[in-house]
Amino acid sequence: MKFDYYDASGNQTERTVEAVRLIFKESSWYLQAFCLKRDDWRIFKLFRIDWRTMKVLNQSFEPRTPPEAFGQDDLAGTTRLILLFERNSEHRVREEFAPDSITYREDGRLLVQLESRLDQRTRFYLLSYGAELEVLEPSELRRWLHVQAQKIVETYRAK
What is the extent of the structural domain holding 26? Predict the structure, then answer.
């Protein structure tokens, strides 16, 4: 396939790739492919592909074997997260988490279990769910969210 791709800085390049699979990583979908332009394996964030330029080429290719563990999260430095979402967040949860990480509970809430880096980006991403999310584990993330919620209350407390 061939498409225009925009990197994180907004620079556009045309890519011709041999697509292998889709990967869900850190709340986004990626295309794992061998890039003919770079003559190497690449992971393309789906959001950055200009779908208007997408062309499926009438060419076949011998599937290449990706390097071992290519495209998989490096689990070193990750933390086990157990998240409980309210049922009205289902649409967003289904879009942003891998299907095999989601368990539907009898009460309608969604339990999500995954390994993730516990960096600032992850913390603020989870904070964006507001009261629709309860972090069950890890306790350090629960405490951080509690402190952030208290700060928000103080900011908006009537003076």
Answer: 2-55
